[in-house]
Write a structure and sequence with these properties.
By secondary structure, the chain is of the alpha/beta class. Helices cover 36% and strands 22% of the residues. β10, α8 and β11 form a beta-alpha-beta unit. The longest helix is centred in the C-terminal third of the chain and has 24 residues. It is globular and about 60 Å long.
Length: 425
């Protein structure tokens, strides 16, 4: 009898990617075989994201498409908790697996293969660490350090899916990092909904955790993921000495969301614009050639023209290297859903203006790197080329065939708003 086959399709954040790796690993350990196309599978698994309206629409489309194949479907990720009713409207027979229920993966999938619908969205106290994996990228190890957050933002649907903060123990995390390195990974991504609040529920903190990870011997790089400005402003003085370690990418992701304190207050963000600006300056003073990333929501219901202009002015003042821009769309179950929404055309126009300002700043920032020489770690294949990351996690496109995990000496010969262009030396 041939082993049963599963296909897994993943959307969303790095935590979702990690979840899909563990789902695949658990199934393979239980004698199921992964395949590359849904048509070749006996069961299809969709790991969903619903943080944006456009992404939710994509999830609905994929549920319909996978349902039409007449194969069992398991919907995992955030959507089973945030929009369960919508999944059940599209496919009443779909099994559901919540983001904190990976320990029920095998039962959910094997039940689906037997024609039995199962629902596991109640959550589990088990940390999502030390589980078997099939890694999407053999060079990158994604380590989730906590689930949920301490925020209460009026626009956020992820809070519905992941609820309050649950930090994983430093011991479990350091064991996971060691295992990841033993598997051959060269980059460690430390991820969560908000890394800055790590440990506040278990009497520890992020600097203590990073100290444990830095005590691990080996040649590897660490990318510290997102932390909200309220925490970054309190932690940076303790984090910067750790960032000086050569194994740390000089990369800081602090999502400001708006350049207007009035809008931030109505978003119920627990920081002010000044917290973001001061943290960015503090980091850049220490590491002039670093990468600063942030997020902006355009068109929040309370955003007026003058608020949007403050956002443009902030971008031109702080000059972040990466800006993740989202047009606001009210998500079901959030407080902002009941607010009076702005005219979509006005939001579109603001988004266009912000994109142009961000692209201009990013291009100018990237051109500073032309003629830079140094090492990059090749960590991704991109359409006939490879992508390497330098010490600042700057993406460098190299138009050669080079194995993942290779460390190269390169020089930067050109730049776009999105990346650097490099040649081997």
């Amino acid at each position: 009898m041939n082993p049963q086959r599963f296909y897994i399709e993943t959307y969303g954040c790095s935590a979702n990617i990690a979840d899909s790796e563990m789902i695949a690993g658990l199934l393979k350990e239980n004698s199921l075989t992964p395949v590359e196309e849904p048509e070749a599978a006996d069961v299809n698994i969709l790991v969903t994201c619903t943080v944006k309206t456009a992404t939710s629409h994509r999830m609905q489309y994929r549920i319909k498409e996978l349902t039409s194949s007449n194969r069992p479907l398991v919907v995992a990720g955030c959507m089973p908790k945030t929009e369960r009713h919508l999944i059940e409207t599209l496919n009443p027979n779909a099994s559901l697996l919540g983001p904190e229920d990976l320990n029920s993966t095998v039962k959910t999938v094997t039940d689906a293969l037997r024609g039995v619908r199962s629902i596991h969205i109640e959550g589990s106290s088990s940390p999502k660490l030390l589980l078997p994996r099939i890694r999407r990228n053999p060079v990158v190890g994604i380590v989730e350090i906590s689930s949920g957050c301490l925020g209460n933002c009026t626009f956020c649907q992820v809070k519905i899916a992941k609820e309050g903060l649950t930090s994983y123990s430093p011991e479990y995390i350091t064991h996971e990092v060691k295992r990841t390195l033993q598997d051959g990974c060269r980059e460690i991504w430390l991820t969560s909904q908000d890394n800055g609040c790590y440990g506040k529920d278990i009497d520890t903190n992020l600097p203590h955790l990073l100290g444990s990870i830095l005590s691990i011997e080996g040649d590897f790089k660490i990318r510290l993921g997102m932390m909200n400005p309220e925490h970054a402003s309190n932690l940076l003085d303790r984090l910067i000495p750790q960032y000086r370690d050569d194994r740390f990418f000089k990369f800081l992701h602090i999502p400001v969301q708006s350049g207007s304190n009035r809008v931030l207050k109505s978003m119920r963000r627990n920081h002010k614009v000044e917290d973001f600006v001061n943290s960015a300056k503090r980091f850049r003073d220490e590491f002039p050639f670093s990468t600063l990333s942030t997020d902006i929501i355009v068109g929040f219901p309370t955003e007026k023209n003058e608020d949007f202009q403050k956002t443009i002015d902030m971008i031109r003042e702080v000059r972040p290297d990466v800006v993740n821009i989202s047009r606001f769309g009210a998500r079901p179950g959030t407080e902002s859903e009941s607010m009076v929404q702005l005219d979509p055309q006005a939001v579109k126009e603001r988004s266009g203006l912000l994109h142009r300002a961000v692209k201009e700043v990013a291009l100018q920032n990237n051109r500073r790197w032309i003629r830079w020489r140094g090492k990059v770690l090749v960590d991704e294949e991109v359409r006939g080329a490879v992508l390497g990351r330098n010490f600042a996690y700057r993406p460098v496109v190299i138009r050669e065939e080079i194995p993942l995990g290779t460390v190269l000496e390169i020089r930067v010969v050109d730049a776009t708003s999105a990346c650097l262009i490099g040649e081997t030396t």
